[in-house]
Design brief:
Layout lengths: L1 H17 L1 H12 L11 H7 L3 H4 L14 H40 L7 H15 L5
Length: 137
């Protein structure tokens, strides 16, 4: 489980290194409950997928902070983490919408030939990535 968390954190850092926009898009994608599941290693996702999991969970499958706890304490902790996750996912969804509304408004303001489009955005990202990797245009 720790290995999977570390892999996820590494990919989060990789997204940040590429660009802030890339990190934001990764965060938004990860916040979508129906699109991003880790039930093979994430306790909250696993408990949501399998209603019998909590009754049958083995001690070695638990994170350190839940080892030695009663089944009831574990259920309560997982329910609390699930509620926290739901709240954060909703916040990310709201902020993502506000971000997109802002981008759309800015694009509308610019209008005409100066308007940014996907091609220009890709070109800009490639040029920025090239500069970060030591290339010049």
């Amino acid at each position: 489980m720790v290995r999977n968390i570390n892999k996820q954190m590494l990919q989060d850092r990789n997204a940040e290194v590429q660009s802030a926009a890339n990190a934001v898009e990764r965060t938004v994608a990860k916040s979508k409950k129906n699109a991003y599941k880790n039930d093979h290693w994430d306790l909250v996702d696993r408990a949501e997928k399998d209603v019998n999991f909590m009754a049958n969970v083995r001690e070695e499958e638990l994170p350190t902070e839940l080892k030695g706890k009663s089944k009831e304490e574990i259920k309560k902790a997982v329910a609390q983490k699930s509620a926290e996750r739901d709240k954060i996912q909703k916040e990310i969804e709201e902020l993502s919408k506000k971000r997109q509304d802002f981008i759309d408004a800015e694009m509308k303001k610019r209008g005409g030939a100066d308007a940014d489009d996907i091609g220009k955005a890709i070109e800009k990202s490639i040029l920025e990535l090239g500069k970060k990797n030591g290339y010049s245009s």
